[in-house]
Amino acid sequence: MRVYNFSAGPSMLPLEVLEEAQKEFLDFAGTGMSVTEISHRDKAFAPIVEEAEANLRELMNIPENYCVLFVQGGASQQFAAIPLNLMHNGKADYIVTGNFAKKAWQEGKIYGDARLVASSEDKTYTYIPDVDKIAFNDDSDYVHITSNNTIFGTRYTKFPKTKAPLVCDMSSEILSREVDVNQFGVIYAGAQKNLAPAGVTIVIARRDLIENPLPFCPTMLKWKTQADNGSLYNTPPCFSIYMANLVLRHLKKLGGVKEINKINEYKAGLLYDFIDNSSFYTNSVVKEFRSIMNVPFVTPSKEMDEKFVKEAKAEGLVTLKGHRLVGGMRASIYNAMPVEGVKKLVEFMKKFEKENA
Ligand SMILES: *Cc1c(COP(=O)(O)O)cnc(C)c1O
């Protein structure tokens, strides 16, 4: 009865996790209450946040000199929190590789001199600029990048080496491939793509960077507020954190990020290989920068794209319509998308091509 959901976010969660949540939904840990009903000050809840943090630290190999925060407001709220916590000299560099990167840059401009140092807008974001050739400014408080571009289906294959702390939006790829956290000053991610239901946002920040928020930074946007209070300054998104923890446990069981990355590469390979060998489907991203999470593609015509989305849905392959900025289709194949789902999609694409080419 369950379909394969290719939504870009909120997106699929592992079946095993949903079943576990269902099993203990009415009575969490012998409390006689649902996890959605207990207080965040209840002694049954604190271990959830602690375990989620410990699991994330283990899976991403997060060093001790970084804090891990569970906050609200989505990645979009962090577009403001970043300058409000870091822009001491009123200057920052931004690389714009897609729609969310552009939004982050525009938000940065509200607070100071947010400078565009590189962009791939000239070719509708189908590539990532060469990070070794970018002239970063010496006086920047930070450099902002978006590591995986959800709408356009690109990802960095190499991160820039910058003097200023590198701040990275990893919303649509966190925990999908191994990264060295030490390369970054701050990593943040809305959880609803690869980690949990909507409502919680992860912030991983080097501790020395959170000490001096701008004087007018709202209390709730100060990373230090959350760090000093173990993410429990006010009511956190309890259920989303609980679900994130179940997903993190699940990832550990699968063998961690290295193993899930192998599976992700395999899934993306199935899809890209098929597209590349077909004269009916096209993906216009420069090969080197293709995302293994979001795969946009088109058929020869708009009418055919519409037909594809409709017929795929009838086969239990849903939410394949592309973003309005790109059109066509987009298959988001995050960690929780089973290999079977991608195989079924490829089979359907073959059949559709035969019937319509
Ligand atoms: C989805 C997404 C966002 C927006 O996230 P919200 O949690 O809805 O604010 C930002 N950046 C990237 C890369 C995304 O994929």
- The number of helical segments is 9
User: Which regions have little confidence, pLDDT < 50, spanning 5+ residues?
Assistant: none
Which second-level CATH architecture of the largest domain applies? 3-Layer(aba) Sandwich
Oligomer: single chain
Helix content: 25-40%
The main sheet orders its strands as 2-10-9-8-5-3-4
The SS-based structural class is alpha/beta
Per the CATH scheme, the topology name of the largest domain is: Aspartate Aminotransferase, domain 2
Strand elements, count: 13
Q: Span between N and C termini?
A: 30 Å
**CATH homologous superfamily annotation of the largest domain:** Type I PLP-dependent aspartate aminotransferase-like (Major domain)
Please describe the biggest sheet, giving its number of strands, its sense, and whether it closes into a barrel: 7 strands, mixed
Distinct small-molecule ligands in the complex? pyridoxal-5'-phosphate
How would you describe what is shown here?
The chain is α/β, with parallel strands linked by helices and 357 residues long. It folds into two domains: 240 residues, Type I PLP-dependent aspartate aminotransferase-like (Major domain) (Aspartate Aminotransferase, domain 2); 100 residues, Aspartate Aminotransferase, domain 1. The chain contains nine helices and 13 strands. The strands form four sheets. A seven-stranded mixed sheet has the order 2-10-9-8-5-3-4, with helices on both faces. Strand 3, helix 4 and strand 4 form a beta-alpha-beta unit. The model has no long low-confidence stretch (mean pLDDT 97). Pyridoxal-5'-phosphate binds next to helix 3.
